[in-house]
Amino acid sequence: MPIPLQKLPYLALKEVLSTMKLKEIFKIASLSKENARRVKPCISSQRFLLTIFSSDGWKIESECSRNFEYWSEDCSKNGIFLDKTGHEVLEFIVEVFNKPNICLLIKNDMEKFHNYSRFFGTLGLKIGQVTFYRCKQGELQNMLEAFKGVPEIHIYSCILEKKIQFDNNINYYFESIEIRISVNSDLKWRKDLLFSLIDCKKVNINGITHRSGGKLLPTKDLKAFLERWIEGSKMEQFSTTAFDLSKFSTVFKPLGQVIPEGGVQKRKCFLIQQKNNGRKAIVYKDEDEVELKTNFELI
Known about the structure:
Blueprint (H helix, E strand, L loop, with lengths): L9 H8 L4 H9 L2 H10 L5 E6 L4 E5 L6 E3 H6 L8 H11 L4 E6 L3 H13 L4 E6 L2 E2 L3 H7 L5 E8 L16 E6 L5 H10 L5 E5 L12 H13 L5 E4 L22 E2 L2 E2 L1 E4 L6 E7 L2 E5 L6
Helix pairs in contact: 1-3, 2-3
């Protein structure tokens, strides 16, 4: 006679659940509060990612295996939680799946970000990643202010507007930020944006290439940016197509920096070093892109 899962001891239940797909674990936990209470400790060693979409749909998945996932559409099709509100379902997920990392994928609705930020705040969670698909150039700085405290930011389209200024007295401190901006955006605005991100750990500002016909920041601005890094910056990785690289190699001699022995993927690179702590980084160009890395191995 088969033994009901509810009557299995902890270690046996944990072993059984380890053989199941996420959708099966979700279904078992959803059957009763007692089931949810017993399932939770059995999966406590796993880390999960909860992604919320603009449609208010969601996906819960294991961070170890992206094939180990369950979607809100499947939840509805399976007749699970039809009597619960969207927030009630999310509260269940947060409780059973041990406060998963939260990722928001939003088209162009900042109010949705604020609503979810407040909601998850009541559950003791902060949003870990935001992907925003479209904003206007004049909205970008307000968005960055709103996203303070979110470690990872992706903004995939920043639409050009005229006569927009960027406050260069504000610096940001994201773990990782990626922005795609118009190739025809104002040069001063573009420079002020780049310099405001000097203390972010990982920065990628893209969309401006030589082939696009857009204007590029002059070599002197690249030199000034690297001087800021040498004076002291938390940046560990940086890449952008924003600068004119036609005189790239002339930047480093005035900085007192050197060409190291070796290179990166057969590209000549320059070694720069911070004044206060001696931290080093390599800087090199890859076609139209300049890259800076503090984690490197010369070959």
